[in-house]
Amino acid sequence: xxRTLIQKSMMRSGTxxxxxxxxxxxxxxxxxxxxxYRYDITPGKGAHTWEKxxxxxxxxxxxxxxxxxxxxxxxxxxxxxxxxxxxxxxxxESRIKFISRxxxxxxxxxxxxxxxxxxxxxxxxxxxxxxxxxxxxxILEKSFNGKINNEIRDLIKKEYSKESIKSIxxxxxxxxxxxxxxxxxxNHVGNGLSTWESVWTPSQVELAxxxxxxxxxxxxxxx
Length: 223
Hints:
The protein has 223 residues and is an alpha/beta fold. The chain has a single domain, classed as Rossmann fold, CATH 3.40.50. 50% of the residues lie in helices and 10% in strands. The chain is built from 11 helices and 4 strands. It has helices spanning 15-28, 67-77, 79-83, 92-117, 126-129, 133-144, 150-159, 162-169, 196-199, 202-211, 213-220; strands at residues 3-9, 35-37, 58-64, 121-125. It has a 4-stranded parallel β-sheet with strand order 2-1-3-4. The radius of gyration is 18 Å and the shape is globular.
Protein backbone atom coordinates (compact mmCIF):
# COMPACT_ATOMS: atom_id res chain seq x y z
CA UNK A 1 0.00 0.00 0.00
CA UNK A 2 1.32 3.41 -0.97
CA ARG A 3 1.78 6.09 1.65
CA THR A 4 1.37 9.83 1.15
CA LEU A 5 3.82 12.68 1.61
CA ILE A 6 2.08 15.87 2.78
CA GLN A 7 3.70 19.31 2.66
CA LYS A 8 3.21 22.10 5.21
CA SER A 9 5.35 25.20 4.83
CA MET A 10 5.74 28.64 6.29
CA MET A 11 4.49 31.30 3.87
CA ARG A 12 7.13 32.66 1.48
CA SER A 13 9.50 29.79 2.25
CA GLY A 14 9.78 28.07 -1.12
CA THR A 15 6.40 26.34 -0.90
CA UNK A 16 5.68 26.55 -4.62
CA UNK A 17 9.08 25.39 -5.84
CA UNK A 18 9.22 22.58 -3.29
CA UNK A 19 5.72 21.46 -4.32
CA UNK A 20 6.77 21.35 -7.98
CA UNK A 21 9.95 19.41 -7.18
CA UNK A 22 8.18 16.87 -4.97
CA UNK A 23 5.49 16.35 -7.59
CA UNK A 24 8.15 15.59 -10.20
CA UNK A 25 10.08 13.20 -7.97
CA UNK A 26 7.20 11.31 -6.37
CA UNK A 27 4.37 11.43 -8.91
CA UNK A 28 6.02 11.84 -12.31
CA UNK A 29 9.44 10.21 -12.14
CA UNK A 30 8.37 7.71 -9.44
CA UNK A 31 11.72 7.86 -7.66
CA UNK A 32 10.07 6.52 -4.50
CA UNK A 33 7.83 3.63 -5.53
CA UNK A 34 6.07 3.18 -2.18
CA UNK A 35 5.08 6.84 -1.93
CA UNK A 36 2.80 9.41 -3.51
CA TYR A 37 2.97 13.16 -3.00
CA ARG A 38 -0.24 15.10 -2.41
CA TYR A 39 -0.13 17.97 -4.91
CA ASP A 40 -2.12 20.68 -3.11
CA ILE A 41 -2.53 24.15 -4.65
CA THR A 42 -5.36 25.45 -2.47
CA PRO A 43 -4.72 29.23 -2.45
CA GLY A 44 -3.95 30.58 1.00
CA LYS A 45 -4.68 27.26 2.71
CA GLY A 46 -3.51 23.73 2.08
CA ALA A 47 0.21 23.90 2.71
CA HIS A 48 -0.09 26.73 5.25
CA THR A 49 -2.82 25.48 7.59
CA TRP A 50 -3.28 22.76 10.18
CA GLU A 51 -5.00 19.49 9.42
CA LYS A 52 -5.14 16.08 11.04
CA UNK A 53 -2.58 13.85 9.35
CA UNK A 54 -2.46 10.08 9.80
CA UNK A 55 0.83 8.88 11.29
CA UNK A 56 0.14 5.46 9.82
CA UNK A 57 -0.44 6.36 6.19
CA UNK A 58 1.34 9.71 5.79
CA UNK A 59 4.64 11.51 6.18
CA UNK A 60 4.99 15.23 6.84
CA UNK A 61 7.51 17.59 5.27
CA UNK A 62 7.78 21.19 6.52
CA UNK A 63 9.91 24.17 5.57
CA UNK A 64 10.92 27.17 7.69
CA UNK A 65 12.60 30.43 6.70
CA UNK A 66 13.99 33.37 8.65
CA UNK A 67 10.67 35.11 9.42
CA UNK A 68 12.26 38.54 8.97
CA UNK A 69 12.94 37.62 5.35
CA UNK A 70 9.31 36.50 5.11
CA UNK A 71 8.18 39.97 6.26
CA UNK A 72 10.47 41.64 3.71
CA UNK A 73 9.10 39.37 0.99
CA UNK A 74 5.51 40.28 1.83
CA UNK A 75 6.35 43.99 1.87
CA UNK A 76 7.92 43.64 -1.58
CA UNK A 77 4.90 41.79 -2.97
CA UNK A 78 2.12 43.89 -1.46
CA UNK A 79 3.52 47.43 -1.57
CA UNK A 80 0.58 48.75 -3.59
CA UNK A 81 -1.95 46.86 -1.49
CA UNK A 82 -0.60 48.35 1.73
CA UNK A 83 -0.69 51.87 0.26
CA UNK A 84 -4.23 51.53 -1.11
CA UNK A 85 -6.00 50.10 1.95
CA UNK A 86 -8.85 52.06 3.53
CA UNK A 87 -6.40 52.60 6.38
CA UNK A 88 -3.04 52.54 4.57
CA UNK A 89 -0.05 50.86 6.17
CA UNK A 90 2.62 53.39 5.33
CA UNK A 91 5.32 52.94 7.95
CA UNK A 92 7.65 49.97 8.02
CA GLU A 93 6.72 49.43 11.65
CA SER A 94 3.00 49.13 10.87
CA ARG A 95 3.77 46.63 8.11
CA ILE A 96 6.00 44.52 10.32
CA LYS A 97 3.26 44.31 12.95
CA PHE A 98 0.47 43.60 10.45
CA ILE A 99 2.33 40.91 8.52
CA SER A 100 3.62 39.24 11.68
CA ARG A 101 0.30 39.19 13.52
CA UNK A 102 -2.10 38.56 10.66
CA UNK A 103 -0.17 36.21 8.41
CA UNK A 104 3.03 34.74 9.81
CA UNK A 105 2.22 33.92 13.43
CA UNK A 106 -1.11 32.11 12.75
CA UNK A 107 0.61 29.98 10.12
CA UNK A 108 3.45 29.24 12.55
CA UNK A 109 1.11 27.80 15.17
CA UNK A 110 -0.71 25.68 12.58
CA UNK A 111 2.49 24.13 11.26
CA UNK A 112 3.91 23.62 14.75
CA UNK A 113 0.76 21.72 15.68
CA UNK A 114 1.19 19.51 12.61
CA UNK A 115 4.81 18.84 13.56
CA UNK A 116 3.94 18.08 17.17
CA UNK A 117 1.23 15.62 16.15
CA UNK A 118 3.35 13.72 13.62
CA UNK A 119 6.37 11.63 14.50
CA UNK A 120 7.05 10.84 10.84
CA UNK A 121 8.38 14.09 9.45
CA UNK A 122 11.17 15.98 7.73
CA UNK A 123 11.75 19.53 8.93
CA UNK A 124 13.67 21.66 6.42
CA UNK A 125 15.37 25.01 6.66
CA UNK A 126 14.74 26.98 3.46
CA UNK A 127 18.20 28.51 3.54
CA UNK A 128 19.76 25.03 3.25
CA UNK A 129 18.05 23.84 0.09
CA UNK A 130 16.65 26.70 -2.01
CA UNK A 131 19.92 27.07 -3.95
CA UNK A 132 21.26 23.57 -3.25
CA UNK A 133 18.77 21.04 -4.55
CA UNK A 134 21.25 18.21 -3.99
CA UNK A 135 20.88 18.86 -0.26
CA UNK A 136 17.13 18.26 -0.65
CA UNK A 137 17.58 15.25 -2.95
CA UNK A 138 19.93 13.54 -0.51
CA ILE A 139 17.54 13.97 2.41
CA LEU A 140 14.66 12.55 0.36
CA GLU A 141 16.70 9.54 -0.75
CA LYS A 142 17.64 8.78 2.84
CA SER A 143 14.10 9.19 4.14
CA PHE A 144 12.09 7.38 1.46
CA ASN A 145 14.37 4.56 0.29
CA GLY A 146 14.69 5.61 -3.32
CA LYS A 147 17.14 6.94 -5.87
CA ILE A 148 17.20 10.25 -7.72
CA ASN A 149 19.63 9.66 -10.55
CA ASN A 150 21.91 12.34 -11.94
CA GLU A 151 19.79 12.87 -15.05
CA ILE A 152 16.70 13.67 -12.99
CA ARG A 153 18.73 15.85 -10.63
CA ASP A 154 20.05 17.89 -13.54
CA LEU A 155 16.61 18.24 -15.13
CA ILE A 156 15.05 19.56 -11.93
CA LYS A 157 17.96 21.92 -11.23
CA LYS A 158 17.49 23.42 -14.68
CA GLU A 159 13.69 23.54 -14.65
CA TYR A 160 13.35 25.12 -11.19
CA SER A 161 16.46 27.26 -10.94
CA LYS A 162 16.05 30.88 -9.85
CA GLU A 163 16.73 31.93 -13.44
CA SER A 164 13.95 29.67 -14.76
CA ILE A 165 11.47 30.88 -12.15
CA LYS A 166 12.29 34.51 -12.94
CA SER A 167 11.76 33.82 -16.64
CA ILE A 168 8.26 32.51 -15.92
CA UNK A 169 7.35 35.28 -13.47
CA UNK A 170 8.43 37.96 -15.95
CA UNK A 171 5.33 37.15 -18.04
CA UNK A 172 3.01 38.36 -15.27
CA UNK A 173 2.40 41.86 -13.98
CA UNK A 174 2.42 41.19 -10.23
CA UNK A 175 1.76 38.63 -7.52
CA UNK A 176 -1.98 38.73 -8.20
CA UNK A 177 -1.50 36.85 -11.48
CA UNK A 178 0.20 33.53 -12.12
CA UNK A 179 0.89 30.66 -14.49
CA UNK A 180 -1.88 28.07 -14.22
CA UNK A 181 0.29 24.98 -14.49
CA UNK A 182 2.89 25.91 -11.89
CA UNK A 183 1.19 28.61 -9.82
CA UNK A 184 4.34 30.70 -10.18
CA UNK A 185 3.22 34.30 -9.67
CA UNK A 186 4.49 37.52 -11.12
CA ASN A 187 7.29 38.91 -8.95
CA HIS A 188 7.40 35.54 -7.18
CA VAL A 189 11.07 35.38 -6.20
CA GLY A 190 13.32 38.20 -5.06
CA ASN A 191 17.05 38.71 -4.88
CA GLY A 192 18.25 36.70 -1.94
CA LEU A 193 18.41 36.26 1.81
CA SER A 194 18.78 38.55 4.83
CA THR A 195 17.59 41.62 2.92
CA TRP A 196 16.19 42.97 6.17
CA GLU A 197 19.74 43.55 7.44
CA SER A 198 20.37 46.17 4.76
CA VAL A 199 17.01 47.97 4.74
CA TRP A 200 15.76 48.09 8.34
CA THR A 201 16.93 50.41 11.07
CA PRO A 202 18.09 48.90 14.39
CA SER A 203 14.76 49.79 16.01
CA GLN A 204 12.84 48.09 13.18
CA VAL A 205 14.98 44.98 13.55
CA GLU A 206 14.30 44.99 17.29
CA LEU A 207 10.56 45.28 16.63
CA ALA A 208 10.60 42.36 14.19
CA UNK A 209 12.68 40.26 16.59
CA UNK A 210 10.14 40.92 19.34
CA UNK A 211 7.09 40.25 17.19
CA UNK A 212 8.57 37.06 15.74
CA UNK A 213 10.53 35.74 18.72
CA UNK A 214 8.85 32.31 18.88
CA UNK A 215 9.38 31.67 15.19
CA UNK A 216 12.95 32.95 15.30
CA UNK A 217 13.72 30.55 18.14
CA UNK A 218 12.27 27.63 16.19
CA UNK A 219 14.12 28.61 13.00
CA UNK A 220 17.42 29.18 14.83
CA UNK A 221 17.22 25.72 16.42
CA UNK A 222 17.02 23.98 13.05
CA UNK A 223 20.18 22.50 11.61
